């Protein structure tokens, strides 16, 4: 890859990344659903003086969920944040070492997040004596969105840990192949 080609996001590198990219693109349609129900709320509230009790929490849950899933999507499509000023100015081999460092740091970070997420999920899904009882919002509608969102966070950081591991393996294999040539 040439320096000028690094600004273009790469296609997913493995089957997991391809699945994440496809599922995320389909799920992104929920942004349109959020706009529709928000419009419905505005019309209900200000035209008919009949506000809903469910739109705000539903829109917040959908937006939060899509934001969480966006991390796995960004990693799958190589659209995560990087300092391109440095990355674009170094050789391909140095980029590979930077990528390896990135994947190792990502493994460490997502591993720590898994530990924190497990604590958060278990507290929101189970009572202190171990019964299943999902945490709810505490509003008049009282959906279990807080527990569901925390579960999604836990699932997504586990998924990202696997992604980082697969990307690290791929990067090391590419580096070995180039050194053996």
From TrEMBL:
Segments crossing the lipid bilayer: 20-39, 59-76, 97-118, 147-169
Pfam families associated with the record: DctQ
Keyword annotations: Cell inner membrane, Cell membrane, Membrane, Transmembrane, Transmembrane helix, Transport
Superkingdom of the source species: Bacteria
InterPro entries: DctQ, TRAP_DctQ
Molecular function in Gene Ontology: transmembrane transporter activity
Location within or outside the cell: Cell inner membrane
Topology term for the membrane: Multi-pass membrane protein
Gene Ontology CC terms: plasma membrane
Residue ranges annotated for the Tripartite ATP-independent periplasmic transporters DctQ component domain, each copy included: 35-168
Subunit organization: The complex comprises the extracytoplasmic solute receptor protein and the two transmembrane proteins.
Family: Belongs to the TRAP transporter small permease family.
Role, per record: Part of the tripartite ATP-independent periplasmic (TRAP) transport system.
Protein name as annotated: TRAP transporter small permease protein
Species of the source: Vibrio hangzhouensis
